[in-house]
Amino acid sequence: MTGAATQAHDLHVHSTLSDGRDEPAVNAHAAAEAGLGLLVMVEHVRRESTHVPAIVAAARELDAPGGLRVRAGVEAKLLDDRGHLDCPDDLTGVDVLAVADHQLPSPVGPVRPDEAARLIDAGDVGRAEAIGWLIDAMIAAAHAHGGGRATTIVHPFSLLPKMGLSEEQIGERTLRRWALEMSSAGAAVEVSERWTCPSQAVARLLDQAGVELVRGSDAHRSDHVGAFRYVDHVLAGVDSWAPGPVVAGLS
Ligand SMILES: [Zn+2]
Ligand SMILES: [Zn+2]
């Protein structure tokens, strides 16, 4: 469970099973070429999706090159501030549940970022209120969806700039509370190459709270699999960073 091979991972790659360009086998080949030991095929789902068994089967049946381990994941958006997710109830065989901040999880349901920005500009929704919904949603989802399946919070706070807000507006106190909740829930938090988030400061804060930081490219094409620049930069600034139980459990 240890060693460079299992430590080198990409926990967030899309294939033709959702909106990725390349077949799973092409992504797996690219992952092996990049020297990865662990690849998680993460595909978008919604409540009514029926392709979860196909995602699981594709990961299981893949003839992975050179000792690469391929696992199955689904990416689901937060729907509301209670942490409900836009995914089917039955996730049998899914190894990783990736929780995504694609829309603002308001008390009455998801709000598109452009609409959320308009509401915030108009003063109909407060900045702190919007940030509070997002934080509460992540915390509730992390606690609700453990149990035998890894939970990752992917590209955290990528939603904020889309709504005209920024990570700095979250506030230290709220960030610390969020980090401690992620830690107690055993959820891993992704450092995202595609969305260049979270910041190094937030990554450090998470690490200090005992949260496992994981690498995710959010690649939608094989040449982006395992190609990390931003992620390497962030993790280089986290003194004690090393893959933890989530990565080990998948390896
Ligand atoms: Zn996403
Ligand atoms: Zn994604």
Description:
With 251 residues, this protein is an alpha/beta fold. It has a single domain, classed as Metal-dependent hydrolases (TIM Barrel, Alpha-Beta Barrel), CATH 3.20.20.140. Helices cover 36% and strands 18% of the residues. The strands form two sheets. The protein has a seven-stranded parallel sheet with strand order 1-2-3-4-7-8-9. Strand 2, helix 3 and strand 3 form a beta-alpha-beta unit. Helix 5 packs parallel to helix 7. The N terminus is likely disordered.
In short:
The protein has 251 residues and is of the alpha/beta class.
Question: Counting H and I runs of at least 4 residues, what is the number of helices?
Answer: 10
The strands making up the biggest β-sheet line up spatially as 1-2-3-4-7-8-9
Overall strand count: 9
Shape: globular
Helix content: 25-40%
The name of the CATH topology is TIM Barrel
What separation lies between the terminal Cα atoms? 6 Å
Total count of domains: 1
Major sheet summary line: 7 strands, parallel
What is the element string, with H for helices and E for strands? HEHEHEEEEHHEHHEHEHH
CATH class reads: Alpha Beta
Residue ranges: pLDDT <50 for 5 or more in a row? 1-6
What structural category characterises the helix and strand content?
A: alpha/beta
Tell me which ligands are bound. zinc ion
